[in-house]
Design a protein that fits this description.
single chain; 406 residues; alpha/beta; Arc Repressor Mutant, subunit A; Nucleotidyltransferase, domain 5; 3 domains; five-stranded mixed sheet; 14 helices; WH_DNA-bd_sf
């Protein structure tokens, strides 16, 4: 956009001032004009103009008065929660989790359901129905959603519209598959890797809050890692940073020679839920039906299950040794089904083994504070940041159009 003339410059400054005032009101929760003038460095008349614009645009509202010196009082303003809506969607292999949050981040409606993702079409139908149910519960339409964020396994290929490296979602690797999610969103939408979103969720609401350098390692049906560097998500050149499933860390394990290992990666083949079950059975635990069974048996003192868990800890430690040597994180958050359900049995052995593998002080290793909600909370965090920008852009467009009609 070209900016020419004093009028255009004035419009740009007005938009910048409105954004600054909105950001401060959001940060403070409630604020008066004098407070905003002090925190933004803008003059009181400029702040008053921005407040008037934001109130007319439906982004702010008056919420009473605050008494000042000599009996003076000042109007207080706050962000209108219903000025924007975010739909967060966690698309997992076993479950889908969907929630609606207002512009302040309050979750106002949520549903968790077993996934029907065996085919792309059935999953889209299920998600659309859930979105309709949630928005109806809130009293809005799907078209009122400001931004939708989907968390999915794999990597979204923006050029082909397919999901790469997501074998747990059959059919989504076909070109154009991701575009079908527009049927669910009813508004602008973005697609993010689920483990990346889990890292964002931990940064915003969990153990990663206030920590600039940490990684979120998900171990469950699959494996993956979200990387936070300088407080920001690191994606890599193709958006595939953190694909730790491909790390060659399981030499000598029979599973590394199976054809599936080439597709899933060596670490994922031996460390994921299927790998834990396979190892437990090879060790003699014939009745192991799931990784949960193995960890529960280990807690109960079963020696075979305990051996399987220690093997799992060794695999995880080897992967984290590479991560530690390259990224030097302050914190490792363990998530996913195995990371959260079995984290109490893994953190100690992993830390001890890591000490012998890397000649560096090992990072803190903790189990996710968000558990199964990490991806969904990350989707909402990303969505809220985007939604706030979108409502401000729309308000600026309205103001520009109004000014141009004068």
């Amino acid at each position: 956009m070209q900016i020419t003339g004093a009028a255009s410059t004035t419009s740009v400054l007005r938009v910048m001032n409105s954004r600054a005032v909105f950001a401060e009101v959001f940060r403070l929760g409630k604020a008066s004009r004098p407070e905003l003038a002090q925190t933004t460095g803008l003059s009181k008349p400029t702040v008053a103009m921005a407040l008037t614009h934001l109130e007319r645009a439906g982004l702010l509202r008056q919420v009473g008065q605050r008494s000042g010196a000599a009996g003076r009082s000042a109007l207080l303003y706050e962000v209108r929660p219903e000025a924007g809506w975010v739909l967060g969607v966690d698309v997992g292999r076993g479950y889908v989790r969907v929630a609606v949050a207002d512009l302040l981040g309050t979750i106002v409606a949520r549903k968790d359901r077993p996934s029907r993702g065996s085919r792309a079409s059935t999953l889209v139908t299920q998600l659309t129905r859930l979105a309709d149910e949630l928005t109806a519960e809130v009293g809005i339409a799907r078209s009122d959603i400001t931004l939708t964020v989907f968390g999915t396994p794999g990597v979204h290929d923006a050029q082909t519209g397919a999901l790469r490296s997501a074998p747990n979602l059959p059919g989504w690797d076909r070109p154009g598959s991701v575009e079908r999610l527009a049927e669910v969103a009813g508004a602008p939408f973005v697609v993010e890797n689920d483990v990346d979103l889990a890292a964002v969720g931990e940064s915003a609401y969990g153990l990663g809050a206030g920590i600039d350098h940490f990684v979120y390692v998900s171990i469950g049906t699959g494996t993956g890692m979200g990387i936070m560097i300088d407080g920001k998500l690191y994606r890599g050149f193709r958006g595939a940073a953190g694909e730790v499933g491909y790390l060659p860390v399981a030499e000598g394990d029979p599973l590394q020679d199976e054809p599936a290992s080439r597709k899933r990666g060596m670490f994922e083949s031996v460390a994921s839920a299927d790998g834990v079950v396979s190892l437990a059975r090879r060790l003699g635990m014939a009745d192991a039906a799931s990784a949960k069974d193995v960890f529960e048996a280990a807690r109960a003192g079963d020696p075979t299950a305990t051996r399987a868990v220690l093997h799992e800890a060794d695999h995880v430690a080897h992967a984290l040794a590479a991560v530690t040597a390259i990224l030097d994180p302050e914190l490792v958050v363990l998530g996913g089904g195995i990371g959260t359900q079995g984290g109490d049995l893994l953190t100690g052995p992993v830390r001890d083994r890591l000490t012998s593998l890397v000649a560096l002080d090992p990072p803190r290793i903790e189990v996710s504070a968000l558990g199964a909600d990490a991806v969904l909370r990350g989707a909402l965090a990303v969505g809220l940041t985007g939604a706030r920008d979108l409502v401000l852009d729309r308000a600026a467009s309205i103001a520009t159009a109004t000014t141009g009609q004068r």
